[in-house]
Write a structure and sequence with these properties.
With 180 residues, this protein is mostly beta strands. The chain contains one helix and 18 strands. The strands form three sheets. It has a nine-stranded parallel sheet, with no helix packed on it. It has a seven-stranded parallel sheet with strand order 2-4-6-8-10-12-15. The chain has a two-stranded parallel ribbon with strand order 14-17.
């Protein structure tokens, strides 16, 4: 039968740890993980909350993925797969350099409240809304470290002052919603 993964992973030094589920995933991650990888089961729902530490790699399925990265936590690669997915990057959370968030086919939402200002150490982040007709990127702050934004039909910057890098803005085919 299908195995469900549920509970809290709390601790330190989960180096090169991998969690693979063949069933639904409901997981809270806390502690000081450095190379944690999580893979959801095929066509199974996943709810992942990263309270602290680093989720190095998340691979979703063709179902609903709900990923919430809290203040003080970090992610590097999120690939949700198909389904109606929701990814939230809170203020004071972090997307690691050369990181990416890719939402698959379906009408997805990505909300970024974390400041991702371009620096020498943080300058290569990509955001991809995937295939869908109602993919929404909501930003409320500076995301100049993002050098690629693709696949979003709407970019909403109504809740704050948002700055997008020229590299990321180049070739965008989204409807912008802002306060002005």
């Amino acid at each position: 039968g299908a195995a469900n993964v549920s509970g809290t992973l709390n601790g330190t030094n989960y180096t090169d740890a991998t969690i693979t589920s063949t069933g639904d995933v409901n997981l809270n991650i806390a502690g000081n993980q450095t190379e944690l990888k999580v893979t959801a089961g095929d066509k199974k729902d996943a709810t992942i909350t990263v309270e602290s530490g680093l989720l190095n790699n998340y691979t979703g399925s063709a179902a609903k993925d709900d990923i919430n990265v809290k203040a003080g936590a970090s992610v590097k690669v999120i690939d949700t797969g198909a389904g109606k997915d929701v990814v939230t990057i809170a203020a004071s959370a972090n997307i690691k350099n050369e990181g990416s968030i890719k939402l698959g086919a379906g009408d997805d939402e990505l909300t970024i409240s974390a400041a991702l200002a371009k620096t020498d150490a943080l300058n290569k982040i990509s955001l991809d809304g995937g295939e869908g007709s109602k993919d929404i990127l909501t930003i409320s702050t500076d995301i100049t470290a993002v050098n690629s934004i693709t696949g979003f039909e709407t970019i909403d910057a109504t809740s704050g002052t948002a700055t997008i890098s020229a590299d990321a803005a180049n070739g965008l085919k989204a409807k912008f919603v802002n306060g002005s």
